[in-house]
Design goal:
Elements lengths: L1 H6 L2 E7 L6 H8 L9 E7 L6 H5 L5 E4 L5 H11 L4 E4 L4 E2 L4 H7 L6 E10 L4 H8 L12 E3 L14 E4 H7 L11 H11 L3 E12 L5 H22 L4 H29 L4 H28 L4 H24 L9
Parallel strand pairs: 1-2, 1-4, 2-3, 6-9
Antiparallel strand pairs: 4-8, 5-9, 6-8, 7-9
Helix pairs in contact: 9-10, 9-12, 10-11, 11-12
């Protein structure tokens, strides 16, 4: 293991645009890695920032690549093409990594069949929205409690987070890089799915951790979930049930449309019919889910003493799901913009 760790070169790729508020902290944390410094290359791909991002980056011993075009996946692909490491690791400009981040990543690549490694992303701040993102029933970002080796991407966050993932560079080149048509959300999931379908294994390791600066306001948070929904809808439009990600997206879209039709119909019948059955059915499809969510949070409150979450979190859950699903629907009616890598 030690021979493998000391002989493996790693490129850390950081896409950024207007990240002057956070990128200094990230680059400072990357200078504290416990891995052999001669084996680590850091590439910051700047997507035409208009603030002081470049000035800050130039103060650190990293490679700065200027990319005039915008796009997260475009920046990732530019980074891969400029990289020299056997392993390419990705994080975001609003993250902080621990000293053992690269060491823990590389340990998982000892198996030659492993070509994708993902880790957990925890909230960097303690504000209300960040704590919700980490403690809701469905977390904003993947969080793993046990190490898993998988041969395919699975639902319920059993996939890497874009701010904490790594791949073998040759495999990234083999499967065709990140899809630049996906502007926001599900891009890393779609890419990891292609890696697995090419015959490689994926490892999800709870010891591979980064701290991420989540959105600080509820408005920004819901907008982020709307964007994630757009990414999910776009993957479905492009792949049409040809992979696991588009199949999940299809099921989610159809489930939401079915729910809208049922709730709409029951609402109409509640106000136009004299039967007492329809109001109860309407409550079953609207209020009952909130009660179930509140019950789960009440059970958790017995341990964490966070009783306010019993009332507040279910409603945020509801608006979050609606934001995501409306994002999916909006993407279905949007013309797909084609790009070339």
């Amino acid at each position: 293991m030690e021979d493998y760790k000391t002989s493996t070169s790693v490129t850390v790729i950081v896409p950024v645009r207007n990240g002057e508020q956070t990128i200094r902290q990230l680059l400072e944390s990357l200078q504290k890695l416990d891995y052999d410094r001669n084996k680590v290359e850091v590439i910051v791909v700047d997507g035409n920032s208009t603030d002081k991002t470049r000035e800050i980056v130039k103060k650190f011993p990293v490679k700065l690549v200027i990319e005039e075009k915008k796009g997260l996946n475009l920046a990732r692909n530019v980074g891969i093409k400029c990289s020299n490491g056997e392993i390419v690791a990705f994080t975001d400009s609003d993250c902080i990594v621990p000293p053992n981040w690269i060491t823990k990543i590389v340990e998982n690549f000892k198996d030659p069949k492993v070509s994708c490694v993902g880790g957990s992303a925890k909230a960097l701040d303690s504000d209300f929205v960040s704590q919700y993102a980490d403690n809701s029933i469905v977390r904003l970002m993947p969080f793993f409690t046990k190490r898993e080796e998988l041969e395919k991407v699975k639902p319920f966050f059993r996939h890497p987070a874009g701010c904490n993932m790594a791949f073998r560079r040759k495999v990234a080149e083999e499967v065709g890089y990140f899809d630049e048509n996906i502007e926001y959300g599900f891009d890393e999931v779609e890419f990891a799915d292609r890696v697995c379908r090419a015959g490689y294994k994926m490892v999800l390791d709870p010891d591979v951790v980064v701290w991420h600066k989540h959105r600080s306001t509820l408005k920004e948070f819901l907008k982020q979930n709307f964007q994630y929904g757009k990414g999910s809808g776009l993957v479905f439009k492009m792949n049409r049930l040809k992979d696991a990600v588009s199949k999940w997206s299809f099921l989610s879209i159809m489930g939401f449309i079915s729910w809208l039709v049922i709730v709409g119909s029951l609402t109409f019948l509640t106000f136009t019919s004299t039967s007492s059955l329809f109001p109860w059915l309407l409550f079953g499809f609207t209020g009952l889910p909130l009660i179930i969510l509140a019950t789960v949070y009440a059970y958790r409150a017995l341990h964490n003493k966070r009783f306010a979450r019993i009332v507040v979190y279910p409603f945020i859950d509801l608006f979050r799901v609606l934001s995501f699903c409306f994002g999916q629907l909006s993407q279905l009616f949007k013309k797909t913009r084609k790009q070339t890598t």
